[in-house]
Structure to design on (739 residues):
């Protein structure tokens, strides 16, 4: 109860006022800035966290897009490959068909040529036989044109002229 | 007189030739001056050349015709 | 089997053989040189008579003198010597004719050049009189060449003579060959006469015809540059005789003479060697008659004289575009029109290089099918206006919208007339293209892409209207309803909608 004595009460009151002044000064000069600083730091951290989360989300989205693109590319590659294979197969078949047609044509022409050659050989043989027959007749006639034949030739000739 | 050259085989007798000349005179006139030319290639028959025309009735020509018949190809000549 | 064949051959030939005397008039070779033989004393000699020399060489009597004959040899002169006997055969130069000639290549006296025998018994003289006036009828049936520029603006009728004239390498032979190719399924027989051409060139033409399937109804008469002038002189007449055989039996025939300039030169060579007096440009005085008597044989015959037609496409080569020189003016005055090809157009990429201003068909629209007549009315005027206006645009003046449109349409039309070689259009395709022009179908298409666009357009139209195409190609007719339908289809094609 010493504190309640009038000489002590003044000290107490001065101390209390000191404390209050200190409190308010500290609050004003220290507490608020520190609180503001802490609040700013928290906000900064929050922002960084949000930023990181968003970046992560964007990265995940980008990754998803890349995956999708890769999947598309893979699909396109398959399509192109199968298309190219089909085209190559068709081209190969067309080439084969052309080659077959050409081969048939060559065979047909060869057949025709062979027939034509055979016909030509037969014609030449015919001709040779005919000419040989004529030559033989010439040799025979060279020795055997009689007087009677000569007179017959003369009469036939003038008859031909219209006498 | 107009020249008439008759080409015959050497084997043709004179009688036959005289007969031929008689027919020539009957056909072409008495002024045809017939001259005999012997040519073994004709084989038989005769060829008369008279007034720019040739009357070929030789066996050789008939054999040539036969040869042409057997060796005939395309073309008009 | 072979023995039977041989025996049959011998019997056949023996049965056909009737020997007899040979009577001929005789002359003697006085001198020979440069393909000309002077013969002495050939009594009864006739102009144009075939003379037989030793070793089977023949000549033609073209110069009758008091004492003898000047004859041109049809073959090599090496085997003819002075003093040799010459026989007058009493007949003129003849050419074999008949169905057996289809698909064949022969020379003007009928000797086959394609290494196969020619079996025919009928011969026509190479010189024959042309049909008289009363033996003809008017030209009223079109001969489609498949070339749009020609069929639309310079139509050719069956029985007409249409000259193809231009400098060297302007596409004259290409037009003629395309016209032949376009006849392959029409029943028209074609005769291609090559005079003085290189053998390699003619071989190329034959191969083109064969590849296009047009050789089966064609005959090629070839007198090459290395043949004697007499053979080159006979070639067009022989080709015409071959054609007349078919025309007298009711068939339609197309004859191409490629070319009459070389024919005139061969005739000049021959007559100068025969010492005939030279006239203008050293040609003989009867060089007009040379071509007039040939081209007058192309006619549309009346029913009494067979009912067939001979259409002639003579070709003349000019020098430096000069169509006013001697031989070109001669032939222009004989024919029923000309197709004039210009080097400038050719080098500018306009092929066929037809100058529509100077080209004309005197038979005109009566030789056009009904379908073509309906769509080709304003083409000449449009092109003429375009050409006039195109000159002014060079001065860079400001143009109104109508003029700009006219220029654009003119340019489009000029490019629509461009056509590939050996790719003739059917009548339906020609009408479709002209209807597309009318509907301005290609107005947004750049000129460089026009060709491919037209090809695509025609493929669409052929696929969309097969029955209409078949009917039009067969009959040449097109009613108003069909016209409207095709025009609407052309407009829808422009809009990119389904036909």
């Amino acid at each position: 109860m010493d504190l309640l004595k009038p000489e002590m009460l003044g000290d107490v009151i001065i101390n209390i006022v000191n404390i209050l002044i200190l409190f308010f000064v500290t609050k004003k000069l220290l507490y608020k800035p520190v609180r503001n600083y802490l609040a700013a730091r928290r906000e900064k951290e929050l922002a960084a966290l949000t930023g990181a989360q968003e970046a992560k989300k964007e990265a995940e989205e980008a990754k998803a897009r890349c995956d999708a693109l890769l999947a598309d590319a893979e699909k396109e590659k398959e399509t192109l490959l199968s298309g190219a294979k089909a085209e190559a197969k068709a081209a190969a078949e067309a080439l084969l068909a052309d080659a077959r047609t050409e081969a048939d044509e060559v065979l047909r022409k060869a057949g025709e040529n062979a027939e034509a050659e055979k016909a030509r050989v037969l014609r030449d043989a015919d001709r040779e036989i005919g000419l040989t027959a004529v030559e033989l007749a010439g040799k025979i006639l060279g020795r055997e044109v009689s007087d009677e034949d000569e007179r017959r030739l003369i009469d036939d000739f003038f008859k031909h002229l219209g006498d | 007189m107009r020249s008439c050259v008759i080409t015959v085989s050497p084997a043709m007798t004179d009688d036959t030739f005289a007969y031929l000349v008689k027919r020539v005179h009957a056909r072409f006139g008495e002024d045809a001056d017939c001259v005999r030319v012997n040519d073994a290639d004709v084989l038989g028959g005769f060829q008369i050349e008279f007034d720019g025309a040739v009357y070929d009735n030789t066996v050789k020509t008939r054999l040539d015709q036969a040869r042409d018949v057997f060796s005939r190809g395309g073309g008009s000549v | 089997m072979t023995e039977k064949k041989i025996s049959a051959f011998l019997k056949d030939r023996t049965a056909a053989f009737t020997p007899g005397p040979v009577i001929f008039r005789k002359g003697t070779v006085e001198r020979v040189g440069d393909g000309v033989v002077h013969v002495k004393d050939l009594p009864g000699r006739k102009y144009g008579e075939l003379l037989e020399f030793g070793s089977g060489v023949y000549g033609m009597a073209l110069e009758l003198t008091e004492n003898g004959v000047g004859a041109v040899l049809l073959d090599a002169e090496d085997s003819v010597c002075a003093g040799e006997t010459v026989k007058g055969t009493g007949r003129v130069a003849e050419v074999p004719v008949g169905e057996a000639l289809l698909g064949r290549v022969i020379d003007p006296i009928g000797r086959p050049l394609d290494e196969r025998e020619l079996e025919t018994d009928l011969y026509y003289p190479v010189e024959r009189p042309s049909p008289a006036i009363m033996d003809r009828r008017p030209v009223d049936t079109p001969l489609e060449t498949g070339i749009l520029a020609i069929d639309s603006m310079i139509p050719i009728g069956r029985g007409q003579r249409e000259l193809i004239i231009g400098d060297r390498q302007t596409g004259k032979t290409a037009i003629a060959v395309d016209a032949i190719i376009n006849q392959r399924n029409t029943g028209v027989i074609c005769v291609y006469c090559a005079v003085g051409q290189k053998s390699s060139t003619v071989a190329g033409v034959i191969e083109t015809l064969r590849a296009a399937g047009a050789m089966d109804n064609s005959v090629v008469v070839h007198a090459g540059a290395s043949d004697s002038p007499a053979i080159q002189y006979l070639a067009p007449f022989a080709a015409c005789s071959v054609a007349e055989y078919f025309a007298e039996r009711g068939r339609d025939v197309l004859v191409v003479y490629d070319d009459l300039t070389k024919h005139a030169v061969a005739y000049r060579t021959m007559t100068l060697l025969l010492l005939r007096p030279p006239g203008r440009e050293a040609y003989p005085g009867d060089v007009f008659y040379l071509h007039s008597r040939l081209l007058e044989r192309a006619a549309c015959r009346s029913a009494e004289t067979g009912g067939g037609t001979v259409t002639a496409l003579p070709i003349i080569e000019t020098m430096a575009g000069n169509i006013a020189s001697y031989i070109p003016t001669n032939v222009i005055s004989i024919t029923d029109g000309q197709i004039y090809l210009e080097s400038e157009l050719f080098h500018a990429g306009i092929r066929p290089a037809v100058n529509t201003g100077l080209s004309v068909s005197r038979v005109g629209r009566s030789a056009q099918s009904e379908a073509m007549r309906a769509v080709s009315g304003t083409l000449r005027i449009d092109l003429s206006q375009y050409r006039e206006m195109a000159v002014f645009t060079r001065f860079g003046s400001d143009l109104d919208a109508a003029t700009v449109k006219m220029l654009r349409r003119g340019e489009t039309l000029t490019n629509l007339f461009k056509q590939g070689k050996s790719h003739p259009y059917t009548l339906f395709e020609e009408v479709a293209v002209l209807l597309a022009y009318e509907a301005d179908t290609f107005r947004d298409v750049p000129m460089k892409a026009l060709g491919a666009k037209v090809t695509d357009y025609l493929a669409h139209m052929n696929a969309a209207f097969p029955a209409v195409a078949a009917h039009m190609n067969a009959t040449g007719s097109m009613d108003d309803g069909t016209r409207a339908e095709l025009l609407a289809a052309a407009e829808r094609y422009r809009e990119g909608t389904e036909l």
